[in-house]
Amino acid sequence: MNIIRMSGGLANQMFQYALYLKLRSMGKEVKFDDINEYRSESTRPIMLALFGIDYPRADWEEITAFTDGSMEPLKRIRRKIFGRRAVEYYEKGFYDPRVLSFDSMYLRGEFKSEKYFEDIRDQVRETYRFPELEEMHLPEKLHQSTRVCLDAIESTEAVGIHMYRSDSRLDEELYEGICTERYYEGAVRFIQERCPDAYFYIFSNEPKWVKNWAEQLIASQLKEGMNRQEIEDLKAHFIMVEANTEYTGYLDMMLMSKCRHNIISNSSFSWWAAWLNDNPDKMVVAPDKWVNEKDCEDVYTKGMVLINSKGRVSRTVK
């Protein structure tokens, strides 16, 4: 039996469950440790039930057996003398094929690559099909605001922009200088050159910063001789979406996945939104680095257009 250590928010949980589906397709027995990372009140919620998922859970005895974490006195003394005898494997990189080779291992990692589940992608896509809005049983006010936004997205050449600010993250140095203002400006220009009628729906954890960015971007696109109506029309093409909390953030992922195109940050959340977008002609723009000082090739998917921190196109992923 393998045990996958669940961690992080919804998007990370989705990568970990996609790995579970892959291992199960290989005939392996797999359970989840959803205890260790979620014992604190400050941890993010487990959200997989959104998709009707009920996964097998490892019990505490199974977890301590794999991790050599028993608090029995003799075992604690033995660990102090001889060290821990855990049967654990830490994923290396974004895609580590060794992860798929074990039959009895406690697996730790993010598993943030389509390569883990590329051959069962249809099953993964079906698993992560969002319920219809009416089936989510949202509070009336939230349901109404989400319905208005969804209807607007589905009636326009909508582009979902996820602007996740790196200075809100732990390990800031890993993300510094990647999703810069110029990256987003370059991504918007790339889409506008190909879709002049694009409407940009902006999702962010820092709406005040984004509003300022959007105002500056709009100001840079003003042309001499524009009348008031033309200016208002330009402004109307940039829409802030800011109705959701940690517990309803899945609605942002759903809304972004319904857009025709996506501009993503180096975030699992917007990665999934773009991946679940089923528009066959979608354009997905991504930063050309995911984290600093690390090979990030395996996180990208075919067809992504990569733009650097200066706002220039680097390449298209083949």
Descriptive account of the structure:
The protein is an alpha/beta fold. The protein folds into two domains: 2-127, no CATH class; 136-316, Rossmann fold (3-Layer(aba) Sandwich). It has ten helices and eleven strands. The chain has helices at 10-25, 60-67, 73-82, 121-127, 140-154, 181-194, 207-221, 228-235, 250-258, 268-276; strands at 2-5, 30-33, 88-90, 106-108, 157-163, 198-204, 238-241, 261-263, 284-287, 305-307, 313-316. Strands 7-6-5-8-9-10-11 form a seven-stranded mixed sheet, with helices on both faces. A four-stranded parallel sheet has the order 2-1-4-3, sandwiched between helices. Helix 1 packs across helix 10. The protein is elongated. The relative contact order is 0.13.
Can you count the beta strands?
Answer: 11
Helix content: 25-40%
Low-confidence stretches: none
Whole-number mean pLDDT = 91
Q: What's the structural domain tally?
A: 2
Q: Which strands sit side by side, in order, in the main sheet?
A: 7-6-5-8-9-10-11
- How would you describe the shape? elongated
Describe how the helices and strands are arranged.
Layout: E1 2-5, H1 10-25, E2 30-33, H2 60-67, H3 73-82, E3 88-90, E4 106-108, H4 121-127, H5 140-154, E5 157-163, H6 181-194, E6 198-204, H7 207-221, H8 228-235, E7 238-241, H9 250-258, E8 261-263, H10 268-276, E9 284-287, E10 305-307, E11 313-316
Parallel strand pairs: 1-2, 1-4, 3-4, 5-6, 5-8, 6-7, 8-9, 9-10
Antiparallel strand pairs: 10-11
Helix pairs in contact: 1-10, 9-10
